Amino acid sequence: MSRGIPKATAEGLLVNGFVEPIVKEIPLEYSIELNRLLQLEMEGSVG
Question: Is residue 1 part of a domain?
Answer without folding.
Answer: no
